[in-house]
């Protein structure tokens, strides 16, 4: 009879590495999970310290999480983490490491963890947008043990971008083109700078204001160089079977047209960068004028053209009637999937693509995928 | 050691009830699943016949599926289905019924199946948009045995609408308002009829053309009465905890402003309906004129206002700059989620919301959620 098939629900030991903005928001979402929760947090770690309690770390005020871990924790110890967590993997109980850092060192540990049967969830783009051999090692490790890796929030934060692409591919659709505004910072800058009008604020003033608001990296060059977009394109393109091995070096293999002026490539700091950027306002204004004459706006986009094997990031013009002009605002991401089924009109996903709450939501929704 | 935790992957016995357009497309997607598939189809049924092979029905040309089942099958027998399928539920093997019908009778069986430990996946809106007691019986049955029910394709077909709403709720976001164009037919009709211009085709001519193209039900009154939208609003609102019990009678409790003229409420057939509809063109033209004077377009939308406990379907005006005017085209659905996190700018999902291929994709993606 059916009753015999009902096993007790899986339990999940969750280890959280990185308890900054995203990490502490994630912990707070997890501790607020309603009803009987299958999740308990067994480990909290900063880059320097860790707390490990296999029976579950009691709920606390997560506002002070980082300080608490620093004050009470043991020194950070990667072999200790792998050893202790793998000891918790057993039938009926899964162990999940949630990496909320942006560390390359932590990312390089995913294959080890997966081989120990530990699942990995992360908003950290490093492992999935880096060299192909690390990515393939992750795929192999996962298929060896069945431990899963999920990284929804590496593209579009809480927006269902990766899950949608996976569904399109797994259900046999043929994705032909993905095109989108993938950087919240770039979205904000060009939504302000290029509206289809010939007049408007100078490029440098928009960047300066965005930096003051905290919308850019400390040095805006780290946004304007397009690396973030190239990383996201790498992550998506590897989910498309025919493009899986297209980018051997990862994001640096993407055809990226940086917006950092050559003369500022080596600016000593963010302060220097924004101070010197006005020298290039005329160039950016010319681009805007040309677009406007053409009935277009400028947007910094990422494009994956599957048929042409083309993966590129850069500034493009879109007609003022295009959704990238009409529908976009704030620092929204927008992603269009063109496929055999979604043709001639694409599947579109739009919304905030950055911020601690929505990034943590993407992480939490991955955790829920493992459990439900 | 971790190795001990690796169990063989779950196997899935899939029973497909309804092998018309969506059903046969689903079967085709399932049979095309790449790599070692954990799925085997054990039952295929039309409303009159069924084929049952517990070891798996061999792959065939699904173009003739319906004819094959009719020619070779036993008579349809619901108790037989429940009995035989529940016998296949065992540790390591799940049984999934995929209901591709639009039958109320089949929908009423979900609680029985779930109580036998059989999972249920469906694009059939009936069970989830009907009386609250059936819905609650489904919830209870599922929680008693742990068998799951998934119905992504009941709203927006393959678009990730239900999964996104579930993620928002489960991760602790506070959804404040959902607003969207939920009917592909209504989308097509008003995208053609109301473009922000005072001139345009008559309402009846747009409806007549849509019917000829196969975009409407045989009797367009079945689209224009708003029932389909009311059903989708019911399904979504029940996923929001504070609205779960808001619609005791289901879709008929939704505040729906039908577009069927009173004089045509009892039209004997679709032919009669489109023949007499021109009598009402003046009324619809007046609505268009008024909207245009206002700088707006007309769209038939569904709204869930969580704070006001308001769930309504009807014709609304949107400024010509609104995404419902600028971004929408064809017979696209568009759904906006406003929440505490996605504020002031909403999370938006847009794309084809009807058609066999994308509906079957939603069904298949639900099946993949059970397996991966």
Automatic annotation (TrEMBL), chains A, B:
Swiss-Prot/TrEMBL cofactor(s): a metal cation
Broad EC category: oxidoreductase
Highest taxon of source: Eukaryota
EC number(s) on file: 1.1.1.3
Record flagged with keyword Ribosomal protein: no
UniProt: NADPH binding residues: 101, 125
InterPro entries for this protein: Asp/hSer_DH_NAD-bd (IPR005106), Bifunc_Aspkin/hSer_DH (IPR011147), HDH_cat (IPR001342), HDH_CS (IPR019811), HDH_short (IPR022697), NAD(P)-bd_dom_sf (IPR036291)
Pathway(s) served: Amino-acid biosynthesis; L-threonine biosynthesis; L-threonine from L-aspartate: step 3/5; Amino-acid biosynthesis; L-methionine biosynthesis via de novo pathway; L-homoserine from L-aspartate: step 3/3
Domain Aspartate/homoserine dehydrogenase NAD-binding: from-to ranges: 18-150
Keywords: Amino-acid biosynthesis, Kinase, Methionine biosynthesis, NADP, Oxidoreductase, Threonine biosynthesis, Transferase
Pfam families for this protein: Homoserine_dh, NAD_binding_3
Residues in Homoserine dehydrogenase catalytic domain copies: 160-368
Catalytic reaction list: L-homoserine + NADP(+) = L-aspartate 4-semialdehyde + NADPH + H(+)
Active-site residues, Swiss-Prot/TrEMBL: 232 (proton donor)
One of the GO biological process terms: threonine biosynthetic process
Residues holding L-homoserine: 217
MF (Gene Ontology): homoserine dehydrogenase activity; kinase activity; NADP binding
Transmembrane segments: none
Annotated NADP(+) binding sites: 18-23
Entry keyword annotation includes Transferase: yes
Record function comment: Catalyzes the conversion of L-aspartate-beta-semialdehyde (L-Asa) to L-homoserine (L-Hse), the third step in the biosynthesis of amino acids that derive from aspartate (the aspartate family of amino acids), including methioinine and threonine, the latter of which is a precursor to isoleucine; production of homoserine leads to a branch-point in the pathway as it can either be O-phosphorylated for processing to threonine, or O-acylated for processing to methionine.
Family that this chain belongs to: Belongs to the homoserine dehydrogenase family.
PANTHER family: HOMOSERINE DEHYDROGENASE, PTHR43070
Protein name: Homoserine dehydrogenase
């Amino acid at each position: 009879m059916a009753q015999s098939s009902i096993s007790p629900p899986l339990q999940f030991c969750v280890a959280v590495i990185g308890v900054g903005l995203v990490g502490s928001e994630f912990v707070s979402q997890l501790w607020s999970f309603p009803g009987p929760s299958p999740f308990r947090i067994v480990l909290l770690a900063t880059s320097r310290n860790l707390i490990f309690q296999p029976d579950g770390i009691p709920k606390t005020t997560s506002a002070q999480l980082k300080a608490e871990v620093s004050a009470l924790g043991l020194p950070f110890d990667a072999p200790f983490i792998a050893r202790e967590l793998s000891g918790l993997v057993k039938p009926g109980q899964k162990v999940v490491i949630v990496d909320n850092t942006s560390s390359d060192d932590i990312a390089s540990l995913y294959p080890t963890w997966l081989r120990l049967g530990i699942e990995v969830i992360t908003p950290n783009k490093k492992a999935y947008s880096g060299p192909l051999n690390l990515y393939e090692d992750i795929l192999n490790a996962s298929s060896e043990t069945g431990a899963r890796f999920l990284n929804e929030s590496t593209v579009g934060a809480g927006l269902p971008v990766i899950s949608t692409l996976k569904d399109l591919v797994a259900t046999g659709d043929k994705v032909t083109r993905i095109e989108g505004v993938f950087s919240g910072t770039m979205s904000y800058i060009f939504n302000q700078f290029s509206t289809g009008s010939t007049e408007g604020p100078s490029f440098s003033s928009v960047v300066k204001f965005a930096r003051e608001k905290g919308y850019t990296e400390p040095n805006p060059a780290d946004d304007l160089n397009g690396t973030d977009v190239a990383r996201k394109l790498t992550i998506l393109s590897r989910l498309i079977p025919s493009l899986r091995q297209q980018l051997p070096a990862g994001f640096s293999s993407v055809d990226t047209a940086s917006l950092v002026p050559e003369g500022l490539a080596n600016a000593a700091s963010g302060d220097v960068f924004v101070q010197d950027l006005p020298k290039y306002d005329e160039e950016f204004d010319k681009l805007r004028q040309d677009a406007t004459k053409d009935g277009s706006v400028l947007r910094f986009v990422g494009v994956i053209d599957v048929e042409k094997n083309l993966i590129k990031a850069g500034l493009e013009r879109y007609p003022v009637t295009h959704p990238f002009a009409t529908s976009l605002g704030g620092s929204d991401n927008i992603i269009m999937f063109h496929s055999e089924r979604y043709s001639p009109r694409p599947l579109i996903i739009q919304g905030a693509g950055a911020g601690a709450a929505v990034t943590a939501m993407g992480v939490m929704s991955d955790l829920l995928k493992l459990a439900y």
